Amino acid sequence: MSEDSAITPSWLSPDPTSWASGGGSLLTDNSTGGLGAFPSEDSLAAGPLPLLVNPWDIVLCSSGTLIACENALVVLVIWQNPGLRAPMFLLIGSLALADLLAGLGLVLHFTCAYLLRSDSAQLLTVGLVVASFSASVFSLLAITIDRYLSLYYALTYNSERTAAFTYTMLVLLWGLSLCLGLLPVTGVNCLAEEASCSVVRPLTKNNVAVLSVSFLLLFGLMLQLYVQICKIVMRHAHQIALQHHFLAATPHYVTTRKGVSTLAIILGTFAACWMPFTVYSLVADYTYPPLYTYATLVPATYNSVINPVIYAFRNQEIQKALWLVCCGCVPAGVAHRARTPSDV
Q: What is residue 106's predicted lDDT score, i.e. its pLDDT?
């Protein structure tokens, strides 16, 4: 490849065709420009024309488009409905906004990488993606904390103290996410030293390691909180059953079991989406085939696709608002649906 023709179309692969071969010899020569290098005219004449767009980048861009559209609907509904101002809905709105920005970041990165092809644009878009996904994970933790407090302090949950605590969590999580996103822009990147790159260029190995360890700690905290939530829900259902002389197979037992199953689905989905990329980014470095990075990063983006389904579209109040926005009416089945322990 010619040194003069090197450009940067991809944030992971130094060769846009490496997705097909696994990239075993991708980085044997750092003089090719790092992120991506198109062949010169002489090399094009000597062999078949390579793909000019990495299909994996197209997949990420498509995921970003779906994420942005889906979460924009949630943000719009919460923003326009004055009745959705409770702490729970503010946190769901924060999650949707973070995922919306993450989707836009993926789309902008694809656009800038293949059109602008500049390091500055790459740093900005990667910073946006890092900040957005960090805010998404932090928002998930905040929602978990809110759900725990709503059950543990059920009698005082709707007080002004809860609202103040929610605003404090929002300020902290977005402030910390912004700081993490600004690191690549402020110089914590590997553009000047290729050997310090992680599996996601231009993030450094140390930067990604900090993000991965932080995720594992947050996941452990969420797991502990959900275990406590399950205990509280089971204890409340058992007390209600004793008061009404219910048997184990009654609706209270069924709905409680459904609630515990819902919590397991929430935590399992979160882990299934993010854990492969987290573990891989800890053990791998820039010399590993980019194919493996794409294969673990793409599922991580799917978490932002699933989040609205789990946290927003299943909520009765948001369902009513969506029906009003879409058709101007609320079906009777949605309007009179009772809240159950599965809604925790």
A: 94
